[in-house]
Write a structure and sequence with these properties.
This protein is mainly beta and about 300 residues long. The protein folds into two domains: about 130 residues, Thrombin, subunit H; about 80 residues, Beta Barrel (Thrombin, subunit H), CATH 2.40.10.170. The chain is built from three helices and 15 strands. A nine-stranded mixed sheet has the order 3-4-2-1-7-8-9-6-5, with no helix packed on it.
Length: about 300
């Protein structure tokens, strides 16, 4: 059972209340933003909670046990608060959210209702609805290692140990043309085989797009004009002359680890485990199959 601060309990017992909700968001880049469903700005805890955002509480749920609680907030996109480009750019993905119940006539009278993260964000024109996930959502995150044939590490992390800054696996480039959203014609500072950067990352370094990243779906061409297809179009317009940095992609297969990165000693998968097709192999005596020997002779 939640204990209410004495001043808030007395206010609720008085019959007529002056309460509102406030949300404090901490984005992945460290920026902190405050929003409230009250009709004027409020300030407490060193943060101003803006009323001009049009943010309001939608649906909320809470359950006993380990069920994931949470809720939703809805509002309008504005240049002074949440912008479509920032949301599309992923700045609010997994952002930390504090939900407060506040007496707007005396902001020092308040109660922290929930701490969670931003989940799915749905956009429709100039409006949005953001899902708020409770702390129990973190219990759904994968912990430890999973037995699977493909590698469980991410390229360049502490387990993989590949140097992503190595000139063999990274380069810089410049946009030459934008045939359509999500498709770029570029020039690269080096020669790389077609598909070398497929599954890799494109990080913008020029003004306007700086700090944004995109995942590369495919790369066509090795010299001259290279075509890059992105899984998702950049949130801000791209123009010829924009600069970026590419990092090679890894499909997490043992063959790729061996032939592309020469990093088999650090491969974090289990490629020799029998797969689902193991039961379909020929029985002993009917040909090559389950004779107790290696499956990879």
């Amino acid at each position: 059972m939640r204990d209410l601060p004495p001043d808030l309990a007395a206010h609720l017992a008085g019959g007529a209340t002056t309460l509102c909700h406030c949300w404090a968001l901490t984005r992945r880049d460290g920026a902190r933003l405050g929003f409230t469903d009250h009709d004027r700005d409020l300030s407490f805890g060193g943060l101003t909670y803006a009323a001009r955002s049009g943010l309001e509480a939608a649906e909320a749920s809470a359950e006993l046990g380990f069920a994931i609680g949470g809720g939703e907030v809805a509002g309008a996109l504005s240049a002074a608060g949440l912008t479509d480009a920032d949301i599309a750019g992923g700045l609010y993905d997994a952002a930390s959210v504090e939900t407060w119940l506040v007496d707007w006539s005396r902001p020092e009278t308040r109660l922290l209702l929930e701490i969670g993260t931003v989940g799915e964000v749905r956009r429709a024109g100039s409006a949005f609805v953001a899902e708020l996930r409770g702390l129990m959502d973190q219990l759904d995150a994968e912990r430890g290692r999973t037995y699977r044939a493909t590698c469980g590490a991410d390229l360049g992390d502490a387990r993989c140990r590949v140097d992503r800054a190595d000139p063999r696996f990274a380069t810089t480039g410049t946009v030459l043309a934008v045939p359509e959203p999500g498709r770029l014609d570029v020039s690269l500072a080096g020669t790389f085989a077609p598909g070398w950067f497929a599954g890799g990352r494109l990080a913008w370094t020029g003004e306007g797009q700086a700090g944004q990243e995109a995942e590369i779906r495919d790369q066509a061409g090795a010299t001259g004009t290279i075509r890059l297809d992105l899984w998702q179009a950049p949130p801000r317009p791209v123009a010829p002359g924009d600069r970026f940095r590419l990092t090679a992609g890894c499909d997490k297969r043992l063959a790729t680890c061996r032939e592309k990165f020469a990093n088999v000693p650090n491969f974090q998968g289990f490629p020799h485990l029998p797969g689902n097709d193991f039961v379909l192999r020929p029985v002993p005596g009917s040909g090559p199959g389950l004779d107790g020997g290696s499956l990879f002779r």
